[in-house]
Automatic annotation (TrEMBL):
<keyword id="KW-0378">Hydrolase</keyword>
<dbReference type="InterPro" id="IPR004176">
    <property type="entry name" value="Clp_R_N"/>
</dbReference>
<dbReference type="GO" id="GO:0008233">
    <property type="term" value="F:peptidase activity"/>
</dbReference>
<keyword id="KW-0645">Protease</keyword>
<dbReference type="Pfam" id="PF02861">
    <property type="entry name" value="Clp_N"/>
</dbReference>
<dbReference type="GO" id="GO:0006508">
    <property type="term" value="P:proteolysis"/>
</dbReference>
<protein>
    <submittedName>
        <fullName>Clp protease N-terminal domain-containing protein</fullName>
    </submittedName>
</protein>
<dbReference type="InterPro" id="IPR036628">
    <property type="entry name" value="Clp_N_dom_sf"/>
</dbReference>
<keyword id="KW-0677">Repeat</keyword>
<feature type="domain" description="Clp R">
    <location>
        <begin position="2"/>
        <end position="186"/>
    </location>
</feature>
Amino acid sequence: MFERFTGDARAVVQGAVGHAEAARAPRVDPGHLLLALLDRESGRCRAVLAALGVGAERKESVRRALADTRRRAGLSRADSDALAGLGIDVTEIVARVEEAHGVGAMSGDRRAGRGRRPFTPDAKDVLARALRAAGARGDRHIGDEHLLLALVTRPGGEAEILHDHGVTHETVTQALHDGGAESRAS
């Protein structure tokens, strides 16, 4: 599948690995892919995000929201609300775990050392969804915009965060259609 990735999409995947390494996370997850997309200075995804008003300040807001989601072990607000309906206060659980084990203890990052970082099943799902997004759009290659489309269509914290910042499947598709992105990669 990676032979169909554009240079921009490959840079995102490499950037995601870099984010996982920097966090000393044992595996690359969808949040790392989102962070790598936000880092991009060029590419169709960057143009789409700019067209949707996701500039430097809003990118930092996305980063903060992602960090907060990681503190809650990846639970989205919808997940937390559902648990609250069952009488489970996620905020209280996070506070107690962090009191006993330190801030970020629920993130799932077990402080890996050096070496290859495998992708979580969720991150692999993002890559597979990107392939399907490219196919659905009639694109022969998988670009960084397809990774963004995959993240916004996949249930979870990353899609929720993007949605909160006006980045949805509909807005991304419209921005791509309206030419809010650079010309198609070949």
